[in-house]
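Bench notes, afternoon.
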Amino acid sequence: MKRLVLLVMLFSFCATTFCFAQTKTSQKEKFQANYNNLKAIVESQTYQFIGEIVLENKKREKLDRNSNTVTVNKSKSSGQIVSLSHVNKRFELNGAIEKYQISFNDDKQRISIEFSVNKYQISIAIKPNGKAFLTVYSGHSVNISQVGFIK
């Protein structure tokens, strides 16, 4: 009798696992539509990066979305990026875009964008979940990194 109960339990466990395994979608499949949408936006070279959090080493600070955006419009950029409030640095990214490069990793669903505006080098990495990581390099030792999204 114990064997029969164990056999029924084992069978029901296997059947349940098999059913869930077939209906479960992978993370890659869940993010595919978002990745395709972001890919089209980036290729159009008409989008906005909206910063939500600024990072510096282990310190983080939440940002005002309305005043912390960078707009890319074909060959021009406009907007500003700010650092942590105690550092109080601000990079104005207004001007002509040079050396615009995009790379797509379709297998990992990651997008990398690099370009320069005035004396600043900008790098944006977009992850499969839609989060965008922007870093502005100034040629000095001051860099600003932010987490946000592309719209």
